[in-house]
Amino acid sequence: MKNQKHGPRVGLFVTCLADLYRPSVAFATVKLLEDAGATVEVPKAQTCCGQPALNNGDLDHARILAKQVIRAFADFDYVVGPSGSCMGTIKTHFVELFDGDPEGLTVAKDLAERSHELISFLTDVMGISNIDINYDGIVTYHDSCSGLRELSIHDQPRKLLASIPELTLNEMTDSNVCCGFGGTFCVKYPEISSRMADDKCTRIEESGADTLLGGDLGCLLNIAGRLRRRGQTTRVFHVAEVLAGMTDGPGIGEGEG
Amino acid sequence: MKPMSHDFKARSEKALEDPVLQSALKNLGLGFVEARRQCANALPEFEALRDLGRDICDHTLANLDFYLRRYEEKVTEAGGQVHWASTPDDACRIVTDICRNVDAKKVIRGKSMIGEEVGINDALEEAGFETVETDLGEYILQLAKEPPSHIVAPAIHKSKDEISDLFQKHHAVRGLTERQTERSALVQEARQVLREAFVSADVGITGANFLLADTGSNIIVTNEGNGDLTCTLPKVHIVTAAIDKVIPSVDDAMVLLRLLGRSATGQEITAYTTFTTGPKRAEDVDGPEEYHVILVDNGRSTMLGNEFRDMLRCIRCGACMNHCPVYGAIGGHAYGWVYPGPMGSVLTPMMAGLDEAKDLPNACTLNGRCQEVCPVRIPLPKLLRVHRTWQHEFKHNSGMFRFGLGVWAFFAARPAVYQFGTRIAMAVMGALGRRKGVFTRMPLAGGWTQGRDLPTPQGETFQAAWRQKRKGQEQ
After folding, report:
1. How confident is the model at residue B30 (pLDDT cuts 50, 70, 90)?
2. Which residues of B touch A199 (CB under 8 A)?
3. Would you tell me which residues 323-362 of chain B have a C-beta closer than 8 angstroms to some C-beta of chain A?
4. C-alpha to C-alpha distance for A166 and A146, rounded to whole angstroms
5. Which tens digit of pLDDT belongs to each residue from B416-468?
6. Which domains, and CATH codes, for chain B?
7. C-alpha torsion A129→A135→A139→A145, nearest 10
8. Cβ <8 Å between A255 and B436
9. How far is the alpha carbon of B326 from chain A, nearest alpha carbon, in Å?
């Protein structure tokens, strides 16, 4: 049931990478959701959406982790996470896991309907079109594959970025081509993955941008890692960090010293 | 062709280091991808055509027995003969028997992937026939003794220089000793050599892009016209085709042909679209005296009844590989068998063996670009996932990997333990790497750090920081 008075009650799906690697992305997510009028809660009984198991054909473990997510988020109006990949898994793949299990299918479908990737939730559900912060820089945006192709996220982040006064968006060529992350792919086939990341870094360089933004930490860690290895100084942030005005600290792969 | 897919890792590493291949692959991305995009955008009904294409194929597959029998009847009525081959060996035996029966010496071939799949060239050569490939790309590869690396542009990996060398070496015996370096001169030289083959061949073998059940016709599309000559000049025409090539009618062919050219090369229509129906009739001035069709199963009827049925819609346009960033990085030979790229990673395990090709379904980031462009909407990533699930079920994947995945899943399913452990691990990693911002090396993460740095985590987990913050706010 939607709580109209205090805005919708949103359960934050933190995503394992934001939880472990970059809590600032999750804090930025909370800020954006609260600014949009939502009440945000963070269920403790969550870890990962189970994608490593799912994508490697280990459906038994994928089902166990899917059930864990379904249980943890049963009571929220919406479930929102700062990742097209994780939310794509929850929205499109959980239901496939419960094919022969009508009860599981019902709850998986219910969760899928309530689940959204952060940026598309802000624009498409909460109707936000404008962000009141500033970021002075030339950015380029990498479209992460799951968000783009499973959840049709393309215009939404661009729309919000366009509302930031001193931000310039320079599109790179092939912004919709995979960066080579692919979850366990990047460690199973490191040579191919590095080549794909390298191509992405070249496109970023050609764009003339000083900052790379994206909506998925997996891709951003991969690209940032390759940028640093190449000696490129492009700053890398999750788009939520920029939209929340939380870019004072080091970007991804930047040191303090 | 003996599958080499088990060697995928080594082959892909070699491909990444091959400068000639890498430069060819760069052009592929610029050429086919852009041409298809323009073609698709120029046709308002393109997306609707894709739906229609998918539906035509689905309907045919649901009634495949009916359409195949009907096709056979029509071929027979037109004076041709249909042969059924369950296995590649059957197909090769039938073809060589036909060639023997007509005392053939020289056999020419139009480009066909089914021919590669069943290994027709090796079979013919072993049986003592002289064979000549008449598609320019395939001819180059025949001289180089290499398999195709792309299903539409088989010699895409070859540079002009390499082709100049090959022609000079092999055409010297024909008195063509000068090394040609211009594109047009190379083509002229190939035409001259191939003309001799066309007029002296006893048997012409082609593939089929589509087989029409309503007329018993075979359709091939080419850009060189070599297919027409292969069909019409020799006294025997043999069509080799997979059973999933049959479609109900010429109307359906019109839909699929509009999709095929656009998806494959960004052409509205290929230079030649050739229909052949049976042997030469009494009133015809030319054409073959005998017309044979070999319908090859090779595992397709099994796929018809399992999770891979959707794959049988494939019209072999190659759009999936043109748009695949993995194919774009390593090219076709790395995949180790006839069909490369996404469609090959689905088909090769089914045809060359699950164990032989176990790398292929995993060598994909599941980015979904292939599905986005497939003219008949084959859910390629989903099918690759099915392979991964089978591998996990049948324990075809590495024991170490399964163990690691199991350990991870054990903790991921126990949030309290997971959060306790990750909090300590991230604190340590954060403290060690904070100054520099990245790790250039990391034990157990060599796969990551060999090609890129590993960014340092911020040090605190969100779960811990969030609880801490909330506690502070409550006090």
Report:
1. confident
2. 325, 329
3. 325-326, 329-330, 362
4. 29
5. 999 999 999 999 999 999 999 999 998 888 899 999 999 999 999 999 999 99
6. 48-302 (3.40.50.10420), 414-474 (no CATH)
7. -50
8. yes
9. 7
- Which among B280, B237, B295, B227 has a CA at the least distance from the CA of B107? B237
Facing A178 at nearest CB: one of B367, B393, B436: B367
CB-based burial of residue B345 (10 Å sphere; 0-12 exposed, 13-18 middle, 19+ buried)? Answer: buried
Which has the higher per-residue pLDDT, B17 or B475? B17
B452 contacts in A (CB within 8 Å)? 194, 197, 222, 225-226, 228-229
ipTM of the complex: 0.96
pTM: 0.96
For B377-413, write each residue's pLDDT tens digit: 999 999 999 999 999 999 988 899 999 999 999 999 9
Do the beta carbons of residue B384 and residue B350 sit within 8 Å?
A: no
Average pLDDT over residues A201-229: 98
Both structure tokens of B280:
């030469």
In this structure, the strands spanning A137-142 and A167-169 are: parallel
CB atoms under 10 Å from CB of B470, counted, come to 12
- Smallest Cα distance from B274 to chain A, Å: 36
Q: Which of A65, A198, A224 sits opposite B409 (nearest CB)?
A: A65
